[in-house]
Predict the 3D structure of the following.
Amino acid sequence: MVLAEPREDSPESPTHAAEPVQPTAAAPVSADSTLGLRRMLRQQEIDLIEAALNSTDGNQKRAADLLQIPLRTFERKLRVLGIRRNR
């Protein structure tokens, strides 16, 4: 028994099937690499936050909005990642 059919614009709809993610070329990473996954992700996060701050002239609320994260999360990331704020 079917209670409801998925709407055409719902994620369950076949027309909204997720596109497969295509891998990008990356440098090979070995277990003994000095750049581990966590370190690379941390640096990428720092770069994104700094770029957002630069593009919003240091406005943290707008930078958080640009990154689509809550302001409190953004402020915590600044503190944890050691990113200096220009006031």
Remarks:
- The chain is about 45% helix and 0% strand.
